[in-house]
Every structure is written in C-alpha cells, then in structure tokens.
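Why do we care about 3D structure at all? Because function follows from shape, and shape follows, mostly, from sequence. That is the central idea of this module. The next example makes it concrete: a single protein chain, its amino acid sequence, and then its structure expressed as tokens.
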Amino acid sequence: MKKLEDSLKFKEWTQSLLKNGVHIEDIDVLNTIHKPNGEVLFGLIDVDAVDEEGKKILPIVLLRGHFVIVLVCLIEKETFRKYCLLVKQRRIADGSMFYEHPAGMCDSESDPYKVALKEVWEETGLQISRESLVLLNDKLLYSSPGLLDEGGYFFACEISLTTKEIESFKNQKMGDTTEHEYITTYICSFEESFDLIKNTSGLLVNYLYLNHTNKK
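And the structure:
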C-alpha cells in the first residue's frame, strides 16, 4: 500500500501551504484509505502549522486531492439545440440517484486536461480532444477549504452531433464496477440540467459555462 506522504495529493498540498507562507511544524497521519490497487484515496491528517504571523491554522485536514468536472455540451446539428451528456449514479450522501457531469479525481496525474479526457471517455464513452476542452476557471476553486484540500478544475466542451448520434449516448451502462461505479449515461437539455443536478460543483460549472458563452 502506498504511503500518504508519497502520494501526489500530499505533495501538492504541502507545497501549496509553503507557497502561501505557512510553516509546517508537525504532521500526524490519523488514517489513510486506499483504492483496491493500493493507491491513496483519502487521508485524514492532524497538522501543526502556523501562518506568517505565527497564528495557528485549524489542524484537521481531510486530504482528497484536486478534481476535474467537464460539462459536455452536445449541439444537435439539425436544430442547434444544446444537450448535456450527464451520468447518473446512486450516491452515499443521501442514498438517492444523482445526475452529474463527468468528473474525477487527479489522484496520480497532475495534468487536469489528461484527467478530464480520461473521465469523459470512461464515464460516457465519448472521445474528445484536448483542444476541445475549455478551462472555465483561472484559479482553483475550493469546495470546503475549512476541512478539505480539494480544489476543482471546471471544464466545458462543445461537440456537434446528429440527432441519431446523440441518441446513441442515451442510457449506456458505464463505470468501473471493481471500484463500485455503476453509471448510466443520461441526455437532457441544458435548461433541464439545472433541475436535475443537485451537487454544487455541477451547478457551478453550468453557471461558469453560461458566463463563458455570454462573453463570446
């Protein structure tokens, strides 16, 4: 099993603290959760750290690493209507079905573009190019900075397809069952996605995409 201290997420987290003037006096790894392949999934840390003024920072950190999320906009060639290619899966947050944009963690890859391409392919079966990806945020956006190191890269891509091609992406069974991923693809209009999505990163990427398209 890989040690937390050897993982990319741990190294990036400690580097960001030092970059921002935080002095690390001691780190106590309370727990590490691994993937089936031995890679680090999460880490719970008690850190003794002070800022440039000598003030202590809240000590408990749940180390997750950074993530990518990709709004895949399918533009129907016949009508120019915009559709979202979502994935739906049951989530432990409340046990209900969640409709989400393709997303994933940067566990062992520091290039978010590579992770974005991989996640879209693995979760939807759609192969996109690096050139089609538009990064919507110019700095990492953090989900819960009082506890998590997790920052997000928010992408969008627009792909023109025929009606028949769009239909082919409906209700496809995807995901890695060895990691308990049971995913089904879902097509909806961009407008409908606002009602279906109930995770904050999913709604945020929608609004970032709207802001981007309004600037064109």
